[in-house]
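User: Hello! My lab partner asked me to get a predicted holo structure for this protein. The small molecule is magnesium ion, SMILES included with the sequence. Please write out the structure tokens.
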Amino acid sequence: MYILQAKHLDKFYGKTKVIKDVSFSIKKGQIYGLLGPNGAGKSTLIKMIAGIEKVDEGEIIFEEEVKNINRYKRNMGILTQDIALYPSFTAHENISFFCSLYSYRGKELRKRVDRASEFVGLTDCKNKKVEEFSGGMMRRLHLACAIAHTPKLIIMDEPTVGIDPQSRNHILKSVKQLKNEGASIIYTSHYIEEIEEICDEICILDKGEIIAKGNSEYLKSYYMRNNTYIIILKNKVDNIENAIKKIDGISYVSVSNREIKCSCSKGINILQKLVNTICNNGGVIESIKNELPTLENVFLNITGEKLRN
Ligand SMILES: Nc1ncnc2c1ncn2[C@@H]1O[C@H](COP(=O)(O)OP(=O)(O)OP(=O)(O)O)[C@@H](O)[C@H]1O
Ligand SMILES: [Mg+2]
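Assistant: Hello! Below are the structure tokens for the protein in complex with magnesium ion.
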């Protein structure tokens, strides 16, 4: 049922521990998101899973109890953070090269190369040299090279960095399609919206440690201690900030012109009191919105820092 289990992983670079007691399990067919700021340890973790970096402590177990990475490698497809392609080769030559490393030859190899380039929407450019490609096209070709051998586990390290929205959408669509075709995917990103959109489960890493894991709804409901309301008034009301502060249960208020932002602990219903206070002070309400929690807020709540740094 699990394609991968990571148990109590540690990793040192010199004397610095950069991965600290990291454990997680990925079910077959899932898109598993690794989210974290720069230097969190995402790439290091991915390199450990891919067998590029040594595991200092702990173990990684692939499906059917396979513990030896070399026995599982051909089932994996890896998109490293830095694009690894041959610039003077054409798109097809690149895919063909990487696919042939898995012992595919002749007709079967050609079929796979065609299928992979079609999958990423690069059939029209198949004979173009990579050095003439845009960044987005390179990312798509990178994906084609990683999947031509139909791996069961696809590991993607920031596959959408620095590309235009069209290529980004194409990649996100491709990831979902790969999942529909039965692959399991580890997806790393800084972009919270992407992680929220495509991942079944999410692991948030910071400074080499897991600080939260679960699906996005769970993370948001568990880690968000506050409800935040945004109230727009039709008129400007003096001193409304002080009046709202006095309401029992209010933990935060800020007023900017006609906009009031305030938070209260979850489970306390202060909306009626809030409306009464505003009206009693001469405010006319135009709209009230309950600000929905985001993963960004979750991260901020746990660490006190913004995710993108
Ligand atoms: N080859 C290396 N030698 C020494 N330290 C390293 C090496 N690679 C990474 N590190 C350190 O390990 C920590 C984790 O880095 P890693 O690249 O895994 O982070 P990341 O989450 O992928 O960051 P980014 O979002 O910037 O890609 C950082 O403190 C980094 O400086
Ligand atoms: Mg990285």
